[in-house]
Every structure is written in C-alpha cells, then in structure tokens.
Design brief:
Elements lengths: L10 E4 L5 H12 L3 E6 L2 H11 L3 E5 L5 H9 L10 E4 L15 H29 L2 E6 L12 H20 L5 E8 L2 E2 L2 H5 L4 H7 L6 E2 H13 L8 E4 L15
Parallel strand pairs: 1-2, 1-4, 2-3, 4-5, 5-6, 6-9, 7-8
C-alpha cells in the first residue's frame, strides 16, 4: 500500500490565510491533524478560524510585506508551532486589468511588494531552519498567468512568472537538502481574487464567473494538501490546475 505522510507530523505556515485558497488550505491541513499557523492582516478572520478549527490553528496577525514584523512574529511562535516543516507562501493579489499604458503604478508596486517581496521574506525567514533539520516543503501559489499572457495581466503575470522561475531556482539550490519545492498554478478560481482586482466592484467581479463553473478554493487546497503529503522522496515541481470549462485562446491578431 502506498504510504502517504501523516498530516499530524506537519507544522504548516499558511500566509494569506484570511480568505480564499489560504483559508481553505488552513482548514484542510488543520482538520486532517496538522498544526497550522495562519497569517494575515485581518485579525477578526484569523480569530474566527481559530474558533472554528480549535487548538490545531494558531493565528498570526502580520503583513508579509513587512520583513521585520514577519521575523518578530515567527520568532514569537509557541513551542508547539515553532518547528515549521511546510511553508505555503500563498499571500498575493491582482490589482487592475488596464493595459500597461493606463495602469496604476500604485497597483503595480502593491503586487510586486506582496507577490514577490512578501514571498521572498516568507521563504528567507523559514527556509534555513528546514534545511538545518533536513526536511521540509515550500509551496507557492503561482498562476497560469505566469506562463500565458492576457490583456491587462501585465504586472500580475510578471510576478507569477517570477514565482515560477524562483521555484525552479530554489530547487536547484536545495538539491540534497531533502527540502521540497512546489508551485501550484491555478487557472480561474472563484474567491475574493476578482473583487480585490476590481477594487471592490461586485458587478465587475461577479461577471468574471457568470455562467460557468470555476475552480473553488477547496479544489486548490486539495492539490496543496496532496503534494505536501506525498512521500518525502516525491517532489511535484509544478502543478497546473484549470476548471474543465477553461482552455486556451487563439493568438490575438490586429487587422487593418
């Protein structure tokens, strides 16, 4: 019989745990017996998760874009949660869908600060201890936008291309350490993603998912859980997941 890892042996750090894929992943791991540290900026949502999931969940109010605050928060973890061996660097966002020439520079900087710098801070704060212990797993929330461009995806897609390449380069650095690295690359997932992208415009965000069946946060959480509970000799480098209704567009041409 194929022997998967026991989730009870995992101590999982989930960034961006206040909604969407992060919250769903925190639930998936905690309910399976793992110890979960969930980070985010919305303390009320973290407390609600703690109330829901019980002692297996430790809330950690912190902004991953603030490296000093992140280091301090992780240094103060209670003993039962301090030996992190799964890091799900999930915190990220898309802002705006305008073409580059009309896009907001503030939106671009917010995506870079969260999707790239926040991810790097998270890895740098947790990776050395996993390498020292000789076991661990780093998982990223990438996107098919890191491979396939679309109009208005300019900086968001570029940040996810960074995540894709950083995954591969990290694997090269970690050869022989027994620390695994995985990039989960979803297509269309119905979460607060589009609501954030359109700055709270519910009409615009709702139209993205109208008359189709997108992936759910739970669908992606299941992929994260699967890759992290595979035997330690198995590393899933990249995992692209699309809803059945989504495929690829023809290349755009301009006539006249």
């Amino acid at each position: 019989m194929y022997q998967m890892l026991d989730p009870a042996t995992l101590t999982v750090l989930v960034t961006g745990a206040t909604s969407g894929i992060g919250a769903a992943s925190a639930r998936r791991f905690a309910l399976a017996g793992a110890r979960v540290i969930g980070t985010g900026r919305r303390a009320d949502r973290l407390i609600a998760l703690r109330d829901e999931l019980g002692p297996n969940f430790h809330p950690l109010e912190v902004d991953v874009r603030d490296n000093a605050a992140l280091l301090a928060a992780l240094a103060g973890l209670p003993e039962g949660f301090s030996a992190i061996n799964v890091v799900f660097a999930n915190a990220g966002l898309a802002l705006g869908l305008e073409p580059a020439q009309a896009a907001s520079l503030d939106d671009w900087e917010a995506m870079i600060d969260t999707n790239i710098k926040g991810l790097l801070y998270t890895v740098k704060a947790t990776l050395p201890a996993m390498v020292a212990r000789g076991e661990g797993h780093v998982v990223f929330t990438g996107s098919i936008a890191g491979d396939y461009p679309y109009p208005g995806g300019n900086t968001y897609g570029a940040t996810k291309a960074f995540v894709k390449q950083f995954t591969l380069n990290l694997m090269a650095d970690l050869a022989g350490t027994q620390v695994r690295v995985t990039n989960i690359e979803p297509g269309m997932v119905e979460t607060e993603f589009s609501l954030v992208r359109f700055h709270g415009d519910e009409t615009k965000s709702g139209s993205v998912y109208a008359n189709l069946q997108p992936l759910t946060a739970e669908d992606i959480a299941e992929q994260v859980f699967f890759t992290c509970t595979l035997p330690r000799h198995v590393n899933v480098n990249r995992l692209q997941v699309l809803p059945t209704c989504q495929s690829f567009s023809p290349l755009k041409v301009t006539r006249g």
